[in-house]
Amino acid sequence: MLVPAEKLPEFNETISGNLSYDSMAKALNPFLPEVVIRTSTLNNDFYVYASSGRLSFLNLKSDWQEDFPLESEQRNVSSLSSSNTSLDKVQDYCSDYHRSLLAEKSHTASYLLDQAQVKIANLSN
């Protein structure tokens, strides 16, 4: 979904079957969106981006904070979040091969989350 259809051949050539984190990061970097809001910290990320002017394209109402308080309860929290400590139990059910396969298949998501954290940190300073 990040790579435009017309750029897929170029993207596939760049990764050449190498799904490592570094390979995915290099290939995805040109397609990284300017705004990446993590669902785990949605409220905070939204406020940081909005106060920096990065969300001007949304044409938010001047009083948008009243409709979306910073400390409001998150409604989109997944019970299967990567931060959910019960996921540690996957160690009991998956072989080393399957754990490494899951990690490899998650490099795109990991890269996006890492980049979101960097973007927010840069805007917060």
What does this structure look like?
By secondary structure, the chain is mostly helical. Helix content is 50%, strand content 0%. α1 packs antiparallel against α2 (21-28) and α2 crosses α7 (107-124). The model has no long low-confidence stretch (mean pLDDT 86).
Question: What's the helix and strand layout?
Answer:
Blueprint: H1 8-15, H2 21-28, H3 42-51, H4 64-67, H5 90-93, H6 96-105, H7 107-124
Task: Give a quick set of tags describing it.
125 residues; mainly alpha; 7 helices; globular
Average pLDDT over all residues: 86
Radius of gyration equals 18 Å
Which residues form runs of ≥5 with pLDDT under 50?
none
Order of helices and strands: HHHHHHH
Total strands? 0
User: Which assembly state applies to the chains in this document?
Assistant: single chain
Quickly describe the structure.
This protein has seven helices and no strands.
